[in-house]
Amino acid sequence: MAKTYRWGILGTGNIAAKFATCLGVCENAQLHAVGSRSRESAETFGNRFRAPVRHASYEALANDPDVDVVYIATPHALHKENAIQCLRGGKAVLCEKPFTLNMAEAEEVFAAAGEARRFLMEGMWTRFFPAIRQAEQWIAGGAIGEPRMVQASFGFRMDYADRGRLWDPALGGGSLLDVGIYPITIASIAFQDAPASVCGAAHLSDRGVDEQAAFVLKYLGGKLAVLSSAIRTVTNWDAFIYGETGMIQIHSPFWQPEKVTLIPAPDSDREAVCFEKPHESLGFEYEIREVMECLDAGLLECPAMPHRRTREIMSTMDELRRQWELTYPGE
């Protein structure tokens, strides 16, 4: 890479800590600053990860002239505000998924990036794992024929008693935005298109967030994705891409895989082929490097995760929530 990039992390929660850990294994990446809503949290995080600058407000980080690129790790409902603030502060932005609460908010962020002429990408780390890129190569090379169907589910049990962010509609809680986005992403990777139609059903909690949901996405040519998500139900964490002459198994956990297997049709004389690559750290290292390569090249969006993919997935989730009559405060 052409230069060392000084990163800022906006937020000090669990995912921010994982990201900071991964920055440590990336050449040409330096954790320069952290921003929090409290001085105590910023100092604690900064001490833990040796960030030389600790800001006691998000605004201060957004306007720090020594930060090149900001990773936004705040709750879903804050992404729009935080991203726009950083873009207007002259920063390149990597915003953790889901990009925003809805498509309308996403368009506001894209507009701000256009006005600022700054790089912007949704932090969908799944797209950058070597195992996923191997699966994409198999698909592009015709190893399974035309991909026709995707099957994926991300469900886990979250204790309802803690009343945490996943149960809070004000923070964009529920399974769809937090984990349902991953099965939708696998379908996007397999079919390289937006669905032509969307149909789903969900069970909502007493606070109005989706505890579990199942949905079918239909694509042009009859391609189908059969997907589900949950925050109180445990599901299988393998994903499958089925084609005309074989299938690809993305091994658990499919959203951060180390292993994929190319499986020929049962009546084929071909042997299964396995690709496996352990993560160097916790997995964010791949998207971190991708962002810095884009910045080196002077790009404003990432070819592997362009804005149109974010728009397609946000629109899909908006339509599902419309069908479920699930809205968040302020929408």
Any chance you could write out the topology, listing elements then pairs?
Layout: E1 5-10, H1 14-23, E2 29-35, H2 39-49, E3 53-55, H3 58-62, E4 69-72, H4 79-88, E5 92-96, H5 103-116, E6 120-123, H6 130-140, E7 147-155, H7 175-191, E8 197-204, E9 210-218, E10 224-230, E11 239-243, E12 246-250, E13 259-264, E14 273-276, H8 285-296, H9 307-324
- Uncertain spans, ≥5 residues at pLDDT below 50? none
**Quaternary structure annotation:** single chain
Mean pLDDT: 96
Structural class by sheet pairing and helices: alpha/beta
Reading side by side through the largest sheet, how are the strands ordered?
8-9-10-7-11-12-13-14
Radius of gyration: 20 Å
Compute the number of helices: 9
Model description:
- The longest helix is centred in the C-terminal third of the chain and has 18 residues, at 307-324.
- This protein has helices at 14-23, 39-49, 58-62, 79-88, 103-116, 130-140, 175-191, 285-296, 307-324, and strands at residues 5-10, 29-35, 53-55, 69-72, 92-96, 120-123, 147-155, 197-204, 210-218, 224-230, 239-243, 246-250, 259-264, 273-276.
- A hairpin with a 2-residue loop joins β11 and β12 (246-250).
- The mean pLDDT is 96.
- The strands form two sheets. Strands 8-9-10-7-11-12-13-14 form an eight-stranded mixed β-sheet, covered by helices on one side.
- The chain is of the alpha/beta class and 331 residues long.
